[in-house]
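quick one, 456 residues, struct below
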Amino acid sequence: MLYAVVDIETTGGFASGNGITEISILVHDGREVVEAYETLINPGQEIPAYIETLTGISNEMVVTAPLFGGVAAEIYAMLHDKIFVAHNVNFDFSFIKHHLSLSGYDLRCKKLCTVRLSRKLFPGYSSYSLGKLCNALNIAIHDRHRAGGDARATAELLTLLLKTDLEGIIVQTLSRASKEQVLPPHLSRTQIDKLPQVPGVYYFRDQKGIVVYVGKAKNILKRVCSHFTGNNSGKQRQEFLKNIHSIDFEICGTELMAFILEAAEIKRLWPENNRALKRYEQKYGLYVFEDQKGYMRLGIDTYKKRVPVLYSFNSLVEGHNLLRRLIKEHKLCEKLCFIQKNRDACTGHNEGKCSGACLGIESAASYNVRVKYAIEYLSSILPTFAVIDKGRTEEEQSCLLVEQGKFYGMGYISYHTDIAGPEMLKSVLQPYPSDDYILNLISSHTTQFPQKKIAI
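---
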């Protein structure tokens, strides 16, 4: 069994937007290095000043070096039939696979990460960075942050790991059934093994325990593992994987509850790697206010987070349809409801449908009575219902409550609970913020499964 111990220097942290400036490959037979390859590479782009300071590799040094395409055949020949080994292997592998693919080569080989192996075989160290780990293990590093020096230190580390591995951990890691080689470098396999295969929400945390991503799943284990497959070489994915140190999860009775909990947790925690639901905002709301003449006025406006809203919706058409229904049912003034914006009397007055509030003929006190009735009517036509489904165990069932058109919350109740009304459910359910995204989820679900919806 031959290992290819690899180290590279690059112009930046992700493969798709950066080049390789130096590569070192040491072929290791399990006992010692038997073959070596090393070269500077012209990355085809400027080397940033901070990279030059770190590695000592300048633009002048690589100007006469070969482009990656010029040495791709040699690199592929050394790697394709060996086990690819590196300290934080997915970083080096993503770069080399990406740049080989640009030259027409498809690199497919097993990988070993000396960070992950060191955590298993040499537990208890405060840091597993190459420099600090080698210092703790008395492995000398010469030419730190140069490909050759770091590769030689990694090869010595591999030798020590192979000698220490008396329980066959490396063989297990390389087996087809093992997912070790695709996991982020700082995430232990034991955390993956604890994940259940049920619906729920999972949380990726960084080294400080801060949540960096929240996700929902029909099968938590399967969904979490899917994050680590593939070879996306983009900056976002590479930084994302590097920052994952631990995983928490919360089991949900149904996939719908997982969707809702995910949305609520993203709003609460605002993780740096969640983007789609952060952008979701209510678009419009129906509001009431009193003008300078004392008339209560209903109107549609863009959604305002800190202003009480009678009802919210995603489209102006939906809002205007609802407002026109209130105007018709309670003989409100279209002008005072901002449906008409001319200075004359509203068309409803001419047709006998408005009592002249727009002209000051009807008093504010009289008009406001009908506005209040309209608001009460709005509450009566907005639905109140529960969604009952399976729970986390056989002894319980899940329950979601929508009250007067707004999502109240969710939780779990006994199969023997008599659902007498919303107040009884509210005493046992966990409240959550309501928005149109969640209401649309519930609406779609109850349309598909109407038997789960119970009117209250």
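Residues 147-164 form the longest helix (18 residues).
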